[in-house]
Amino acid sequence: MKIGLVDVDGHAKKKKWGATIYPNIALCKIARWHKEHGDTVEWVNGFEHYDRIYMSKVFNFSPDDLTMYDADEIIRGGTGYNIESRLPDEIDRTQPDYSIYPSIPSDTAYGFLTRGCPNKCPWCVVPRKEGKIVPYMDCDEIAIEGRTKLVLMDNNILAAGDYAKAQLRKIIDRGYRVDFNQALDARLVTDEYAQLLAKVKWLDGNRIRFGCDTHAQIAQCERAMEMIISYGFHGEFFLYTMLNDNMQECYDRICHWWRRLQDARKNKTGNGVYAYAQPYRDPDNPHRPIPQWQKDMAGWVNKKAHFVAHSFEEFMPRKGFRCAEYFK
To answer: Domains of the chain: which residue ranges?
Structure first.
């Protein structure tokens, strides 16, 4: 069979297929499974005929690929098309074929140690799609072909209890460098977790990620960071902050981390703490417009040069407009 692949989320953004940092894991698994069964696999060329095309879409807000392809069968899958979408078990357990994404470094692998999450955040489809947290793969299963840098996309690894601790110990023992790129839940950091997290070798500039989506989580993040630092961690912290409909609350929450960063830089003390703002996207209404203030706040927070250099009020996202106008 001749198999064609379409990464729909990347189709509108990338000029060259495979030029991405984050691969579509489902397509990578599909590619390896078909190759192991003697099929040819390639990114779709609109001028050729295929026996089957797989179109994968992770995000429902990504524009669809409306290209008319020549194929006997087209399979559309992924959360962006249908929250109930699943890979067949025999494909899901297949190791990814990273060769379809040439820009992926040969020492880097992507995957999940767990699936699901016990939280029910309104912007997240994971609890509805995957249910409560369950063990999924061992870190050694992800570290294929000698890959020792693991980008782990678990939604709440610390909620996995003993399984999470066992995986963290194995990661430490193997010397893997990891990044839990969906962030950790600071509320779940215990003394035992703090000791383990301080010993892990972290990717992305020796950086640990936490979520800070409510004002109440500020104290929990501070507590978790202090515990990890007390066990010898010398890296940075990176805080995902979801923007809600309350601009003042979002401003106050982010400014806590901005002031902390300013004090640390001024006094040349402490571990670096940076924020990242995510405008709210309604999982049930992908076409809901993002308020301009959320776009501007994210533009300030997410461009490190601006976040370090000046306050939100001083930020000028557009010519002739200073964000202090929002508070008049």
So the answer is: 1-104
